[in-house]
Structures are given as structure tokens and as C-alpha cells.
């Protein structure tokens, strides 16, 4: 192999993390993946999600999450919840916490500060509350509002990642 040949580092890996991986983080995963595919970055970006707790591991997304995604044109039916692992922390290029308590849990689990961000850091509306609201104990309107925030922030997130995707990281 010649010295001037660049080895492809593989896709840029992003993971979203919330509490149980049935409401907010699946929205982030599904939305960012769809936006990346629509923009032609599907092969350069791998998107996953998990939760800080394992209560729902193996379960589908909350039915209200799936319904909100469906109303917006996304398919969340295949999602299955997982708990974040040490491998998730080690292998992802960017770890996106949906709230500050997730961020604290991830830092305590060894997530590097330079690869950990809050999703609201990308929200162009700059909400006063840096936590994406947990709609679990709320109604369909709350799920729709959370999805709108996730979409808004994910669009800005993808735009910020495009130079890295173009250059191969």
C-alpha cells in the first residue's frame, strides 16, 4: 500500500441517549438517519440510540412515539430499545444526550467530554431549558412537540456534521 493512499475510516457514528430508549432517543435516531439518507449521507453516517437504563431493553418504542413519527412521515416500527454499553461509549464519534441527567450518567460511565453533547446545543430556537422534555407521562401533543424539537435540532446537527462527512471525518 502506498503512503499517499488514505484508508477510509468508515462511517461517522452518532448515538442518541435518553432514559429508557423508547421516546426521545428513538426519535433522534430515526429522524437523523432519515435526514442523512435524504441528503445522500446514508453511507457515511451510522445512527443508533440507547437508554441509560435497561428497563425497556428489547421493547419497541412507546406507541405514542411510533404514532408521532408516523404522523411526520417516519417509520419507527422496527425500533427496539437497548441500554447504553461501554462499547457504545467507546465506538461512537458523537454521543448525543437528550437531557442533562443523561449527560451526567454518560460522563460517569466514562464518555469523553469532547464527544458528548446535548441535542439542544443544536436547536436553532435555543430553548431556555437545555433538556428535551420527556413526553412519557404526557399526551400525543407533547410527543408531537418533542418530535418537532428533535427534527429542528437534527437538521442543524446534520448541517454541522456535513464537513466531516465530506472529508471522511
Automatic annotation (TrEMBL):
It is an enzyme of class 3 (hydrolase). Its EC number is 3.1.3.48. The active site is at 18 (nucleophile), 24, 134 (proton donor). Keywords: Hydrolase, Protein phosphatase. InterPro entries: LMW_PTPase (IPR050438), Ptyr_pPase (IPR023485), Ptyr_pPase_sf (IPR036196), Tyr_phospatase_low_mol_wt (IPR017867). Residues 12-160 form the Phosphotyrosine protein phosphatase I domain. It comes from the Bacteria. Pfam families: LMWPc. SMART domains: LMWPc. One of its GO terms (molecular function) is protein tyrosine phosphatase activity. Belongs to the low molecular weight phosphotyrosine protein phosphatase family. This is protein-tyrosine-phosphatase. It comes from Leucobacter edaphi.
